[in-house]
Amino acid sequence: MTSERRFLEKGRCERLSFRDRSLKSRSRIAGFMGALTILLAPGHPTRSDEFDPLAVHQEARPLNDRWQACAALFVKGRLQGPRTPEALAEKALDHCRAQQAALDRFFVAKIGKRAAENVMMILRDKYRSDLTAAIEELRTRDKDRE
């Protein structure tokens, strides 16, 4: 269950069990590691001779969590609206530009502008896809309950 789905269903953040936390952590680490692997290719300058993607991921987590929570909260109040899931997910991400910009500034400082643009593009696409799936699932569940 993604953090967006968990946040949307409960309307609040909740503590994850050890098993859920490890699955969530592994998926986040895998996503960030994949995105940051691009940065290790030649031609992508970094600010340190010993670049550690895992350390960058750990430092970025609070900013990343705020961005996801903002988008989930925006969607929560609009689940029954007329927008398609894709349009609603895009609108939620647009609404949370301040949180996205904070994460972007963090990455620019850590890995440079070009690499940060690549990472943010990958993350935004992933979060749009995750939000769309969560919206579809919740709308389907709501229809089944009726």
Question: Any overview of this molecule?
Answer:
With 146 residues, this protein is mainly α. It has one domain. It is 76% helix and 0% strand. The longest helix is centred in the C-terminal third of the chain and has 33 residues. The N terminus is likely disordered.
List the main descriptive attributes of the protein structure presented here:
mainly alpha; elongated; 0% strand; 146 residues; disordered N terminus; 6 helices
Segments where pLDDT lies below 50 for 5+ residues? 1-5, 10-21
Q: Give the N-terminus to C-terminus distance in angstroms.
A: 23 Å
State the share of residues found in helices, binned by percent. Answer: over 70%
- H/E element string? HHHHHH
Indicate how many domains the architecture comprises. 1
The tally of beta strands, per DSSP, is 0
- Rg, nearest Å: 16 Å
Give me the number of helical elements. Answer: 6
User: Mean pLDDT, nearest integer?
Assistant: 78
Topology, element by element:
Blueprint: H1 3-10, H2 18-37, H3 53-76, H4 85-95, H5 97-111, H6 113-145
Give a short overview.
The protein is mainly α and 146 residues long. It has helices at 3-10, 18-37, 53-76, 85-95, 97-111, 113-145.
